[in-house]
Amino acid sequence: MNYDALLESQRNFFLSQGTKSLKFRKEQLKTLKRLLKDNESRLHEAIYKDFKKSETENYLTELYLIYHEIDNAIKNLDQWARKERVSTNFFNFPARSYILKEPLGVTLVIGAWNYPYNLCFIPSIASIAAGNTVILKPSELPSNTSALMAELINSNFDKGFFHVIEGGVPETTALLEQRFDKIFFTGSPKVGQIIYQAAAKHLTPVTLELGGKNPTFFHKDANLSMGIKRMVWAKFLNSGQTCVAPDYILVHEDIKEKFLKKLVAEIEKHNYSIDRGNFLQIINDHNLKRLQSMLTNDNVYYGGNVNEGERYIEPTVLYPVNLDDAVMQEEIFGPILPVLTYRNLDEAIAITRRYEKPLSCYVFSGSRSVKRRILSEISFGCGSINESIMNYSNDKLPFGGVGHSGFGSYHGKFGFDTFSHQKAMLEKPNWLELNLKYYKYTKTKLNIIKRLFFSGIRY
Ligand code: NAD
C-alpha cells in the first residue's frame, strides 16, 4: 500500500500552521470527546464483540481515562504550551532565555490490542494537544473496535489532520516506510525492535511502550487481606491481559500458606465470569494456546479450566513454580498467576534479575528497608507500594518503561512533552557586548574570564 498522498496531505496541513493555534487544538479535542460520548453504546458493543469486555470495565479502563485525558489537556493546555522562562548565565549577560514548546509535525501512533481505545486515543490526544497531525494505526486483532475507530475518526476529522489506517503487519510495514516526525508505539518488545529500526532510517524519534515480567513482592510483614484484595483485582482485570498486571508473585516463605489460602478465597469471592461482566475472553486462539501451554497437571494449584470454544481460561494460580517452567520464560499476559517463594530479599531480587527490566513492580510490605532495597536495587518503569497498577491512573505520574520495557513516557503533561520539541532560545538586546570572548586572546583577558565567569565552586 502506498501512503505517499496521505503523508503529503498531513505534512501540508501541518505546514499550513493550522495546528499551531491552541484554540484549534482544544476544538479538535472537544470534537473527539463529543464523538466518543455520542457513540458510547457503539463503543461498548464493538469491544464486547471483540473479546466480551463489559460496559463497566470498558468505561473504567478505557473511556473514563480517555475523557479525563481530554479534559485535562483542554484545562491545562495554555500552561503546558506557554513559553517557559529560565534564568540566563552570567557569561551571556544581558539576555533572556526561554524554552518554546514546538510541535514535532506528522506523528504516527501504533496501538496494541489489549486496551484498544485507551492505547490508541490517549497518545493521539497528547499528540493533538502538542499541535501535531496524527495517523493512528490500531491493532488489527480487535477488528470491531479498529473498524469503529476508523469510521468515527475518518468521517469527522480532516484526513490531513487526524486519520486512522486499519491493518496488520503489511499495512504497518508500508506505513513505516514513510518519514514521520515522531512514532509512538505500544506493543511487544519484539515488534518494538522492528519499529525502532524502521524509525532509525529517517532518524525519527520514537517512544516505545512495551512489556515485561512484572514482579510482585509480598514480604512477611505485608497486610495480606488488603494486599491480596488489591493485587487480585489488578491481576484479573481484563482477564490478565494488561501490560502492567502483576506477572508473578514472590512471597516470603514464612507466610506462603496463609498467602495461598487468602489468595484463593479472594479469587472465589469475585465469581469471575464473562456473564457477570468481570471477565473477558482471551483475544484469539493463538494467545489461548500460548497460555494453555503454561499449564501442566503438576503446577495448577487453583483453577486451570479452559474452554477453547469460548476462548476462556479460568483465573488460575500456579504453585509450586520452578524458574524453568514455561510460565517463567515469557510475559504471561493472561489470567495465570505463578507464585514463587523466597527466604531472603537477596534471593528474591536475584530472581527478578533473570529478566529484562520490567514495566512495573509492586511491593506489599510495611518495612521501610524492604521498600528501599527493592526500589533502589531493581530497575523498572513504574510501580506501586501496597497497591498494584493504580499508579497508571494518576496523570501526575509519567507512565513508561525502562530498558526492554520501553522508553519515553506519557499521560497528562508528560504526553504533551513527549510530542513536543523543547526549542531552547537565548535572546539578546544590542545595547551591550562584552568583548572578552573575541580575538585577540591575551593573558589578561583569560584571567578576567577565569575570575569573572569560571571561578566556580571548589570541591
Ligand atoms: P504487538 O507488538 O504484537 O502489536 C502491537 C502493534 O504492532 C499492533 O498494532 C500490530 O498490528 C503491530 N505489529 C505487529 N507485528 C508487527 C510487525 N511485524 N511489523 C510492524 N507492526 C507490527 O503487541 P500486542 O500483542 O498488540 O500487545 C501485547 C504486548 O504489548 C505485550 O508485550 C504488552 O506488555 C505490551 N503492551 C504494553 C503497554 C504499555 O503501555 N507499555 C500497553 C499494552 C500492551
Please sum up the structure shown.
With 459 residues, the chain is an alpha/beta fold.
CATH topology of the largest domain: Aldehyde Dehydrogenase, Chain A, domain 1
Radius of gyration: 25 Å
Biggest β-sheet description:
7 strands, mixed
- Strand tally is 18
Low-confidence stretches: none
Structural class: alpha/beta
Distance between the termini: 61 Å
Strand order of the largest sheet: 10-13-14-9-8-15-16
Average pLDDT number: 96
Assembly type:
single chain
Reading off the top of the CATH hierarchy, the class of the largest domain is best stated as Alpha Beta
**Helix content, binned percent:** 40-55%
Number of helices: 15
Going by CATH, what is the homologous superfamily of the largest domain? Aldehyde Dehydrogenase, Chain A, domain 1
CATH architecture of the largest domain: 3-Layer(aba) Sandwich
Task: Name the beta content range.
Answer: 15-25%
Mass-distribution shape: globular
Bound compounds: nicotinamide-adenine-dinucleotide
Describe the structure.
By secondary structure, the protein is α/β, with parallel strands linked by helices. The protein has two domains: 3-210 and 409-421, Aldehyde Dehydrogenase, Chain A, domain 1; 215-400, Aldehyde Dehydrogenase, Chain A, domain 2 (3-Layer(aba) Sandwich), CATH 3.40.309. It is 40% helix and 17% strand. It is built from 15 helices and 18 strands. A seven-stranded mixed β-sheet has the order 10-13-14-9-8-15-16. Helix 5 (116-129) links the parallel strand 3 and strand 4 (133-137). Helix 2 packs antiparallel against helix 4, helix 3 (40-51) packs across helix 4 (55-81) and helix 9 packs across helix 10. The longest helix has 27 residues, at 55-81. The radius of gyration is 25 Å and the shape is globular. The N and C termini lie far apart (61 Å). The model has no long low-confidence stretch (mean pLDDT 96). The structure holds nicotinamide-adenine-dinucleotide. Nicotinamide-adenine-dinucleotide binds next to helix 7 and helix 8. Nicotinamide-adenine-dinucleotide is lined by residues 110-114, 119, 137, 139-140, 168-169, 172-173, 186-188, 191, 194, 209-211, 243, 331, 333, 359, 401, 406.
